[in-house]
Design a protein that fits this description.
mainly alpha, 60% helix
């Protein structure tokens, strides 16, 4: 039976841990560019999807002859 080993801030578990490595300036800039590209892409996707939904709503309104006044409850 293994002896009980208490883990805390003074005695953290060390299984599978690697020493922390600092980021180089170039790696940091690369990560910033990647994050920026990701958020720009997500924003474009959201705007594109929004426009698709608006187009779909307009098509349904035309198909059934609905106006904006018909949508007011």
């Amino acid at each position: 039976m293994k002896p009980f080993r208490k883990h805390n801030a003074v005695n953290p578990p060390d299984a599978g841990r690697r020493p922390a490595q600092s980021l180089s300036d170039q790696r940091y800039q690369d990560l910033l560019k990647s994050a920026s590209a990701f958020f720009t892409s997500a924003e474009k996707s959201t705007e594109q999807r929004r426009q698709e939904i608006i187009d779909e709503i307009n098509a349904v309104m035309r198909r059934y002859g609905l106006t904006v006044d018909d949508l007011v409850l």
